[in-house]
Design goal:
Structural class: mainly beta
CATH topology of the largest domain: Immunoglobulin-like
Number of domains: 4
Shape: elongated
CATH architecture of the largest domain: Sandwich
CATH class of the largest domain: Mainly Beta
Largest sheet: 8 strands, antiparallel
Strand content: over 45%
Number of strands: 40
Strand order of the largest sheet: 5-4-7-9-10-2-3-6
Length: about 525
């Protein structure tokens, strides 16, 4: 990429001429001079055919300051007729402002206030450009003719693109042109220099219309306030032009384009720092027209640098045809992490870049690059994977449940234990009892028939010297259609009752510890861990 720039200064002329008709000035004020003010044709070049802001002179303010910098006179005119400015003889500073409309002169009592006045708007009266300028003069009987050169507060940019030297099969389609690191305002008269405090990262952008005009006078211009950063370094090679550590306050241009070649495709970005030269100057001056011509050579993608960003390009090879997530549905508990994975078809596709997203980030978040997901709250979310090439997608429906830990109490039955190790093999009843209930309780009984489960099973028991025993009982709530509570913050006590018959009467009076299996069950949208 080679950049050529042509810079044109644009000024308007304000003519101030001493009047020959002085008979209306009283004799005692013979030291006063009448100055006639006329806006002269600025002979502006025809460079605004596609402009978004007009550059006509609609109205004019002239302010005169004496040698002490104090305001002495002011006139405002918004028509073709001339206006008179009557001043004392002596040294003056004349300030001209075009398209600022009627001004409140109390805001500019001295020269310093008007020099450092901040202008934030890019256009003034009738949507036209704002111009300003000043001149130091000596008003006397023999010196009454003055011309004030006023400059547009904005710099103008237009762009042409020369593709004649591109290699065969290489195509570059410009999609946007934007100005970056532009000042938020301009001082009316003093030099304007951007700092981190008055900087906008994004300025004018052109993203529709004619991106590639045949001539500069047909190009849609971009505008920005003056940013004078001066010369930085001693670089003499345009390829290496860069302001170093001042890159965050120097204005630059970014050109985005669709790129295709026999071996690469995608988005490419070209950047450069304009200035008064192509090597080490970074001045963007008010009133100047920067006519940038970008010449593309060869592939225009061989340089990998700040100037040429090829990170959006991919190598053309085997095209992506499809993508599949390893699972189409998934159940997670709150605070679970899960690593998603996906396979691309064909397996030897050249571009395997994918991105991940979650439809409900309050329920589930997922790293867009790695596919690592974290469940945050009960609910549903759809995880989508998208291929960079072709935009192929696949989805996984994820349900996240709450997770509650519940302890099983040891239930003691008083009585003297006798007997030897054996087997209880009749029907038993496991009763779910509420224990450690919070106040107020948020538990809700949803099985209105019986809050217990009858299980036909056998279990073994053993005795020891301190009259304790162990037992294991499988609690299969799904098969027994038992849903004791929707949710609980307390505990569930499990009571074991054996059959009371003459043969097994002694065995009922044992102290047993019940261990439910499985260790996790699912009840009405809530996982319960024992």
């Amino acid at each position: 990429m080679i950049r050529n720039n042509t810079i044109m200064a644009l000024v308007c002329l304000i003519s101030i001429t001493g009047s020959c008709q002085k008979d209306d000035i009283p004799a005692q004020k013979a030291s006063l001079e009448r100055l006639q003010v006329v806006m002269v044709d600025a002979r502006m070049p025809d460079i605004t055919k596609s402009g978004q802001i007009a550059e006509n002179a609609i109205d004019l303010n002239i302010l005169a300051y004496d040698s002490d910098g104090l305001l002495e006179g002011h006139i405002y005119k918004n028509g073709a007729t001339s206006s008179a400015l009557i001043l004392k003889q002596g040294e003056k500073t004349l300030v001209a402002m075009i398209n600022m409309g009627p001004i409140d002169i109390t805001r500019f009592p001295n020269l310093e206030t008007i020099r450092n006045h901040k202008v934030y708007q890019t256009s003034g009266s009738g949507g036209n450009m704002i111009f300003a300028g000043a001149i130091d003069v000596l008003v006397s009987k023999t010196s009454r003719n003055f011309t004030i050169n006023v400059k547009r507060l904005l710099a103008k940019f237009t762009f042409l693109f020369n593709k004649t030297n591109l290699s065969p099969g290489v195509n570059i389609e410009i999609t946007s042109i934007s100005l970056k690191n532009v000042p938020a305002y301009s001082l009316l008269l003093d030099h304007n220099k951007a700092s981190l405090e008055n900087l906008c990262q994004n300025g004018d952008i052109l993203s529709d219309g004619s991106m590639e005009p045949p001539m500069h006078n047909y190009a849609t211009p971009l505008y920005m306030f003056e940013n004078l950063q001066g010369n930085i370094g001693e670089n003499s090679n345009p390829v290496h032009k860069h302001p170093g550590e001042k890159e965050n306050i120097c204005s630059y241009v970014e050109i985005t384009a669709n790129y295709s070649s026999p071996d690469k495709t995608g988005i490419i970005k070209f950047r450069n720092f304009p200035g008064l030269n192509t090597t080490n100057n970074y001045d963007i001056e008010r009133g100047r027209h920067y006519m940038e011509t970008i010449k593309f050579n060869g592939s225009s993608a061989g340089e990998i640098s700040w100037r040429v960003d090829v990170s959006g390009l991919i190598t053309i090879g085997n095209n992506v045809q499809d993508v599949t997530i390893s699972t189409s549905s998934l159940e997670l508990k709150k605070e679970d992490n899960y690593q998603f994975s996906a396979s691309i078809t064909p397996s030897n596709a050249s571009n395997k870049n994918i991105s991940w997203s979650s439809s409900n980030t309050q329920v589930l978040t997922i790293d867009p690059n790695t596919g690592m997901a974290t469940a945050h709250a009960p609910g549903n979310s759809v995880v989508t994977v998208t291929t960079q090439e072709g935009g192929f997608t696949d989805q996984c429906h994820v349900t996240v449940y709450d997770h509650i830990n519940i302890s099983v109490n040891k239930h003691l039955i008083a009585g003297e234990q006798t007997g030897t190790p054996g087997m209880i093999s009749h029907s038993v009843m496991v009763i779910y009892c509420r224990a450690d209930m919070p106040t107020p309780s948020n538990m809700e009984l949803i099985n209105n028939i019986y809050p217990f489960v009858t299980i036909n099973t056998s279990y073994s028991y053993t005795n020891n010297s301190i009259y304790n025993g162990t037992a294991q009982l499988r609690l299969d709530l799904t098969e027994n259609n038992d849903r004791p509570w929707v949710r609980t913050n307390g505990h569930i006590a499990v009571v074991l009752q054996g059959p009371v018959t003459e043969e097994y009467s002694d065995q009922v009076f044992q102290s047993l510890t019940i261990t439910p299996e499985p260790d996790t069950i699912f009840v009405q949208g809530v996982y319960i861990s024992w």
